[in-house]
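Why predict the complex rather than its parts? Because the way molecules touch one another can change local conformation, and only a joint prediction can capture that. The input here totals 990 residues.
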Amino acid sequence: MTAPLDQHLPDPAAVPSEAVSDPELIAAGLAAEPTLTQPGLGRRTLESLRRDPVALISVLVVVCLAIVAIFAPELAPYNPLHAFPNGLAADGAPVHPDSTFLLGTDPNGRDVLSRMIFGARVSLLVGVVATGLASIIGIIIGGIAGYAGGVTESILMRLTDVVLSFPILLFCIALIAITGPNTRNVVLVIAFGYWTYLARIVRGLVLSLKEREFVTAARTLGVSHAKILRRHILPHLVPAIIVYSTLGVATSILIEASLSYLGIGVPIPQASWGQMISQGQEYFQTAPWLLIAPGVALIITVLAFNLAGDWLTDLLDPATAEIGR
Amino acid sequence: MTGWLARRLAQMIIVVFGVVTLAFLFAYIVPGNPARLVAGPNASPEAVASIARQLGLDRPLWSQYVSYVGRLAHGNLGVSFALQGRSVSGEIWHALPYTVLLAIGGVIWEIALGIPIGIAAAYRPRSIMDRFSTLGALVGLSAPPFWLGLMLLYYLGYKLTLFPLSGTGHPLIWYLILPTFTLGVGGAAWYSRMVRTTMLEVLRSPYIEFARLKGMPERTILLRHALRHVLTPVITMLGMDLGYFLGGVLIIESVFGLPGVGQLAYSAIDTLDIPMITGTVLVAAVFMVVMSFVVDVAYTLVDPRVRLSRR
Amino acid sequence: MTGEPIVDVTDLQVHFRVRRGLVGYQTVRAVDGVSFTIAAGQTLGLAGESGSGKSTVARSLVRINQPTGGSIRVGGTETARLRGQDLRAYRRRMQMVYQDPYDSLDPRMSVLEAIGEGLAVRGMARAQRRAATEDLLRRVNLPVSLTSRYPGQLSGGQRQRVSIARALAVSPEVIVCDEAVAALDVSIRAQVLNLLKDIQADAGVSYLFISHDLSTLRFMADQVAIMYVGRLVEYGTSSQVFGQPQHPYTKALVAAVPEITATGRTGRTRLTGEPPNPADPPPGCPFHPRCAVAIDICKTLRPTLRRKVGGQFAACHVAPDEAPAVSSQGATPGTPGAEPGPAIGTPSSSEVSA
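Output of the joint prediction:
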């Protein structure tokens, strides 16, 4: 469900626009069933976590990552940018993990553990902000397209198709090559690539929501369109948005890692897991931890977000929960 | 059906136009003077100016756009700035086979791994097989492809010398196994979960119950009745994946040293070779759009409900 | 009952265009020239099979569907072509209770919020809404404690009553009930129907009651109209239509209901065949392929509504017309007012906005 960039576009429940049309493979359960209204959502959340250890672990991991990311300066033993003189062995090779440097050092003599911790901060920051931005854009465009219908919808959906068809990675690279690598650009560029996905999903959901009888009832009462969107449609979008945003964070983290790997992500001295992997490539014989540590960190992070997203899907739509979880 | 088909084709053309326009405009957001780039850093202002005229850069925007589209219609993607006047389409043409093979190989792995594992997992939910494959799938989904590629290269290529380390050579297939596998693993992971979920859902429906009551063996039910429902989502993703891969998978190509379209695009970006960038981006986007159309048509063939709803 | 009818529909047309082929369209005449009136405080029942267009009539009355032609006057105001702000103002006068008790309430809104939405439209300040909501709940015989509940916690009957309360919140003059009890258990059905009758007696609300169930209509409706493929085939008081059905279709429907015994019939008319495709109805009288007594003219000439011997109107060549000079036996009081007929144009501009 993530989109490591070279793999495929993330679209677990492909909501086609007209471009890939008719079968509306929506996560329709998320909008159809009112589980979010039943009282005791908090209680049910805890209950469901208790029953599913995998979900519990993944949620804990996410929380831990968040803590690490927020408190990185306090948690890291050393300054991640500082090249220690004793960080390199006599022959200039990185130091193996020992009592001083728990995860060893990198080719520049910097402490790997500290860099890993700050790398977590980068990944999570980029992931969350990019996804948040993409969500907002996606909701606005998808929502308007779905609700307004007609020409507006066609135009917006064609626009989405055009952006969707563009090879995102290349686009990201090109944009960053032009504007220069910095974290802000990375976030913008990822958001630019991801919003189309959410826009399609939101549009599909809004289309089906529009036909629900309570929306018709609200119209008949004389409630204005704006109010309907705000009070009837938007709340029903929330579960799907939560789920797809969580998965989106996973995707964004991978994209950021890929960009950093290529050297056009977060600017060089700053620590990013992708970039650490790129650096560690030549050392896989002599210093394999340089490759393994960030890789495993990425896997765990992305996995945790994916699993958390799955758990949220089940929580917010019990229908699928019972199917052999 | 014909009505729908015609409308869908029209849509496709509109999107292609949008893409073409975007690609065209792209060249104009790049800072720097293209004529200078072509002329080289030491060229005199007159040389630069004359090259600018040659390239038509002094003409108004819409006029350049028109010639651009006109050239495109003849398959002319322009001439590379960085590669000493070699034609963009020519370069792409040469790089394409690697990308195509990579793309097809990747998709084959996706299907070959994803679907059987998904079916097996659905066959016995909550079994060891299921848990195991789910775990494998999740890891496959979460691992960054470049890292996975590197790991595979290291352990299988270097340590065990099963596979060549990089580049191309003879037999080409041998060189493609690792990269295509790396490419396909993520998708395979996704497919296996999709197949599993869809089938489990379908297996609960009343008409499947009925087939069981009739005495039909579970395996036949799985393969003959339930599998069909999986086709729609799988086709969607397959089409989109293929379209995406055909655009050039830069990272895999980079890790494994394959001279495909992705690499071409990357070096073009590095050297600010505008026609090449525009060309590769355009080719990639067109692949995507066409594949999206093909997927749509495929739905009609695969799902009778879709066929009937399209008039 | 007396004075001008609260609802006056003349030649209502609702057509839909459906795509055919490459660029072609086909017009489906879901409602093809329907006219009726509803007097204040009275109930008009509208019956017919699925596809007859009765729901479309209901929905175009509350402007969920847009009428393609014809006139809808509510309290003297022409409403068929209202837009924007005027339409919003009109909406308060006519409300609807829907068939599906489960989907017509937003699952994410509590009862208080749902009814409050209606009160807000009326302009009521938030502070007063709770009291007003509790009032409305009492009116529909629901305990006041339900205000904090969500639809998922209510039964079908309760939900439907909340919907009724919501509709009452804007103080409408007319309520359209579109199969409002069809999805309820029979025992609950009776409760809700009685509730509706009480509200009518209380507040003088008029109802357009849509149902395919004739026994329900017999209970609820003062006047009854039977629809077939987008047109009225019979229209009269409840006792006329059920007591002495004139149209062969009505006769067959009535015969199909176990409790209703239509008097004065000879033999049982059984309904065979399928209702025709509304996009492509048969020529002449649309019922003729299924009609046991069809004669030649039925196949070519479409019958119009005419007063028949029972006193009601029916569109049938076979059923005997009322003799022109007769005033006693057939013409019963409370016969529907406006003479329905083809193509009455848009009303004059001298309307009073009430």
